[in-house]
From TrEMBL, chain A:
Full protein name: Branched-chain amino acid transport system permease protein
Source organism superkingdom: Bacteria
Organism in which the protein naturally occurs: Stackebrandtia albiflava
Transmembrane listed as a keyword: yes
Main subcellular localisation: membrane
InterPro entries linked: ABC_transp_permease (IPR001851), LivM-like (IPR043428)
MF GO annotations: branched-chain amino acid transmembrane transporter activity
TrEMBL record, chain B:
Record field: transmembrane: none
Keywords assigned: ATP-binding, Nucleotide-binding, Transport
InterPro entries linked to this entry: AAA+_ATPase, ABC_AA/LPS_Transport, ABC_transporter-like_ATP-bd, ABC_transporter-like_CS, BCA_ABC_TP_C, P-loop_NTPase
Pfam families: ABC_tran, BCA_ABC_TP_C
Protein name: Amino acid/amide ABC transporter ATP-binding protein 1, HAAT family (TC 3.A.1.4.-)
One GO CC term, this protein: plasma membrane
CDD domains xrefs: ABC_Mj1267_LivG_branched
Domain ABC transporter stretches: 5-244
A single MF term (Gene Ontology): ATP binding
Length: 320, 246
């Protein structure tokens, strides 16, 4: 088992190294699309934390994503462009938002949770559209200053620099999320996913655990939102629309809800496919994505991560 | 002997159906009490209300001098009420040992600030508990890989990890093979004497082996109560069961 576990780590490291080497192989346009995909990848990780760890599939993670995104916009307009401040403030704003709405949301389960989070996401998108002072309405935020990775360093202007920044943040945040899922609080949340009634009967404060994971997932989404501002330097209310929520939930299903890395890869696959169909099959994008979604649900119940598991590249849960 | 559990005038309506209709019961420390009755008599609903999974429509439940009628399930667990479910409900993605350490966590008194010592102490207790239920060789097996009977025993072990004063068992013998049944009876026979047990069960053998007193529920009300032998000889009970059990 140790060897297989080692294998997983080796494969992850290889994948990260390959991604880090991409700027030497692809053009600037592709790189800038990839930076945007990484941002959505963190949104997918946040949905995967809720779906896989807590058993709460959500359509509303664009809400904390939007909070993180507009926190970064407001800070950059105010002249604060240092990445640590942007990331911390965006994560914190999204977490506070989730802590406020969470107690009402985490009381619900299943379809009701899905619909409630959908409503929260839609309300946030509408609010973003209406609050023109912050969002600029449908015209977007306007061109923003580039992010500075650390005090005293050069601003991130070149596509490779922006890409490496986004990749580094995403890898660190995903690793942290993976570590959290394996920690004791993470086990308690997985216990609730397995059997909520049993956990309550054992004296666990199920509501508090779920609120905790909801806030944590919101923080990850908020950091993802901040990355989108850094990578695009101009954001629109459509960046937090329902189609993004649906796309990301689909990415998580395709990537395998139980795997955070799978969620990242799933987000990449779905968005690349969307952009590819837009170029070669104009107008057929939703149809292709819908067909892919149905195929994923039927053919890969565990997602891409499940396929890897079956062919032995990942540690099996059953193996002892 | 002091009263541990006092139930007075307990009622529960599901829409227009009155599932439990004025149920009274008092249990002292160390009592072994069985609730029997036909399907739909209200036995499981009573158990759910004592555990806090279902809210009573009326009546009062007092546990160890505290009114727990409105307290949520996790608070009752911390007061010392443990339970098992009709369908065994261990946490499937965890090993047997992990199931027990997770179950014990809310009741653990060792310092939160020494996580490694705490983990070791929990694992030690969990290992002992598994051994007590003949599951020691299954410590690292995921709960999902256990047989039905082993899952039942594992769930009882989880309930015991809380160090409860009252154990609620919802049809522990349901679906067990004869061999599993023997292990279950052995396990229940070795429970600490001061532990109070309230049991819902259909199997006459299990009731006779475990319970000191039996209450027969019929249409949400107490029909009669007495020792297992008295109940077995009661013609009223035989009538209710239509000759199937008594």
């Amino acid at each position: 088992m140790t060897r297989l576990l080692l294998d997983t780590r080796v494969w992850t490291a290889l994948a990260v190294a390959a991604l880090a080497a991409l700027p030497f192989a692809v053009d600037a346009y592709t790189l800038s699309s990839l930076s945007g995909i990484i941002s959505l990848g963190l949104l997918a990780v946040s949905v995967a934390v809720l779906t896989g760890t807590a058993g709460l599939p959500s359509l509303g993670q664009v809400a904390p994503y939007a909070f993180g995104m507009y926190t970064t916009v407001v800070l950059i307009r105010a002249g604060v462009t240092e990445a640590p401040v942007l990331l911390l403030a965006s994560g914190a704003a999204a977490a506070v938002f989730c802590a406020v709405i969470g107690p009402a949301v985490v009381r619900t389960r299943g379809v009701v949770f899905l619909m409630l989070t959908l409503a929260v996401g839609e309300l946030t998108a509408q609010a973003a559209q209406q609050w023109k002072a912050v969002s600029g309405g449908t015209d977007g935020s306007g061109r923003l200053d580039p992010t500075v990775p650390f005090w005293g360093l050069e601003p991130l202007v070149d596509e490779p620099a922006v890409y490496w920044y986004c990749l580094a943040v995403a890898v660190v945040v995903t690793a942290l999320a993976g570590w959290a899922a394996r920690s004791t609080p993470g086990s308690l949340v997985r216990g609730v996913r397995d059997n909520e009634a049993r956990m309550r009967a054992d004296g666990h404060r199920v509501g508090a655990y779920l609120l905790g994971v909801f806030v944590f997932a919101g923080m990850i989404a908020g950091i993802g939102g901040s990355l989108l501002v850094t990578s695009q330097r101009m954001v629109f209310p459509s960046d937090v629309s329902f189609s993004i929520s649906a796309l990301v939930l689909m990415a998580v299903v395709i990537g395998g809800a139980a795997s955070l890395g799978g969620a990242l890869v799933g987000a990449g696959a779905v968005i690349l496919l969307r952009d590819w169909t837009a170029a070669y099959l104009p107008g057929q994008g939703p149809l292709v994505l819908g067909a892919l979604f149905i195929a994923a649900v039927y053919l890969m119940p565990g997602g891409l991560a499940g396929v890897l598991e079956r062919i032995g590249l990942r540690r099996r849960k059953e193996a002892t | 002997m002091t009263d541990l559990l006092t139930i007075t005038g307990l009622r529960r309506d599901f829409g227009s159906l009155r599932a439990v209709d004025g149920f009274d019961l008092t249990l002292a420390e160390g009592d072994r009490h069985a609730l029997i009755g036909c399907n739909g008599a209200g036995k499981s609903t009573v158990l759910h209300m004592v555990a806090g999974a279902v809210r009573p429509t009326g009546g009062r439940i007092a546990f160890a001098g505290t009114d727990v009628t409105r307290k949520p399930a996790h608070r009752r667990s911390r007061l010392g009420i443990a339970r098992t479910f009709q369908t065994p409900a261990p946490l499937d993605s965890f090993t047997c040992l992990e199931n027990l350490t997770l179950a014990a966590r809310p009741h653990d008194a060792t310092s939160r600030w020494r996580p490694s010592r705490r983990r070791a102490a929990l694992a030690e207790r969990a290992t002992a508990q598994l051994a007590a239920l003949n599951l020691a060789d299954r410590a690292d097996t995921p709960a999902s890989a256990l047989s039905h009977g082993q899952r039942r025993l594992l769930e009882i072990a989880m309930a015991l990890m809380a160090g409860p004063r009252l154990l609620l068992l919802d049809e522990p013998a349901a679906g067990l093979t004869d061999a599993d049944m023997a292990r279950l009876l052995e396990c229940l026979g070795s429970l600490p004497a001061e532990l109070t047990v309230l049991l819902v069960e259909h199997h006459q053998d299990v009731v006779t082996a475990i319970a000191d007193t039996v209450t027969v529920l019929h249409n949400g009300r107490t029909l009669t109560s007495g020792t297992p032998a008295e109940i077995a000889a009661d013609p009223q009970v035989a009538e209710v069961y239509l000759g199937t059990a008594a």
